[in-house]
Amino acid sequence: MPVALSIPSSVNYSTGQIHASNKQTKVTKLKDLQGVFCDTQAADEMDAETCIYQVEMLPAQSVEGELNFGVTHLEAGIIGDEFYMTRGHFHQRIEQAEFYLGCQGEGLLLLQDEQGEVRVEKVFAGSIHHIGGYLAHRLVNTGSMRLSAMAVWPAVAGHNYEALKQNGFNVSVVKDGDHYRLVEK
Ligand code: PAN
Ligand code: ZN
Prior knowledge:
Blueprint: E1 10-11, E2 18-19, E3 24-29, H1 40-45, E4 51-58, E5 67-74, E6 78-79, E7 82-83, E8 98-104, E9 107-113, E10 118-123, E11 128-131, E12 135-141, E13 147-154, E14 171-176, E15 179-184
Antiparallel strand pairs: 1-2, 3-4, 4-5, 5-13, 6-7, 8-11, 8-13, 9-10, 9-12, 14-15
């Protein structure tokens, strides 16, 4: 019997662009991020349709043992003096871990535990981030170009956005001249 050979989906490691016929893309606009940025007045003055980030994903069944593969493309920009960032979340199955892998751009990964303690890792092309269970995670784009990071996580992990709704992250990342500064809230 001939051995089957197929051409799999692929990803461009330097842009994070996924090439797959069944790719799914979810766009998150400013209007979807109510209450996420500190300066609500600055957010209100911007076009609500502004794309802040989009996630490309390969579809996977949400069953035990399956894995998701996705890429987050976070645009560069500030709202007030705060850099663009993802909403951030704990996993619904809070013990489930995840890997982030930096492709392009410069940014930070905020990791916050259930007690509110925050750790920060630099994100850059080639960076590897092991996000253990029980940690909320958020990407922040501190650079002047798009920040793209691949991610692999258990398909059963789910997203819990509610847990952060009250107080969010305890640290925000603001522009400070040509640099960034971490501000405790
Ligand atoms: C990522 C995130 C992605 C978007 O795929 O879902 O960066 O961030 P929010 O989900 O916080 O809007 C991931 O961490 N999945 O588990
Ligand atoms: Zn996650």
